[in-house]
Amino acid sequence: MNTMTLWHISVWEFAALAAAAMLVGFSKTAVSGANTVSLAIFAAVLPARASTGVLLPILIVGDVLAVLTYRRHAHWPTLWRLFPAVAGGVVVGTVFLMWADDQIVRMSIGAILLLMAGVTVWRRRQATPEEEPEEVTSRAGRIKARSYGVLGGFTTMVANAGGPVMSMYLLSAGFRKLGFLGTSAFFFLIVNVSKVPFSVGLGLIDGNSLLLDAALAAFVVPGAVIGKLAVDRINQRLFEQLVIAATVVGGAQLLLR
After folding, report:
1. Quick check: 68 and 221 in contact, CB under 8 A?
2. Which region holds residue 35: left if phi is over 0, alpha if psi is between -120 and 50, else beta?
């Protein structure tokens, strides 16, 4: 099937998806979690369930670019602490997708986006970054990692929306910009690749969706390049405010659609 007619999308709808793919690249190398806007665009243009399968390979392309850019700055003790809890969250999310229809998935994505917007606002007001990442072997660190890990695994499986959850966790743990970007890059590459078999099994990824991904993947690269160039110059406060506003609009649109 021609990628331009896949799911009967118009040229303008394809342009919106291309812009969303570019934003994925930008978010992976500049502001992690900003791709919640991309999630809203994909879910608005495509059927909600199908949108999660189409978006996943696009996210993986962005993850690879982010790892190549920031691989030296990852904090592996934090990653190893998170992965078991994330795996549990992914399993719960997979079970949810097995019975949820398109309307429930769409409304769930909208609710998750609004929740993540609220979480991000709370995080920006409460976060007091320390000089170094917190000690993940402490009891408090383990509890925090498990809590955020399960929630991140569920939200990333159901809606590819784990970014804001992990952003809040890493920032509250005191990560500086490069450590934040390097750790989140490896985290999402590993988690998103691990989600592929689940998505294929649920029928969310197939030959037709991969055709559309092939057409959209090229737009991730310029977004990642722009993000790398902008990361040292970007007005983080203003950008987060714009991301939050766009996320709220996108979430409300999905709930009211």
Report:
1. no
2. alpha
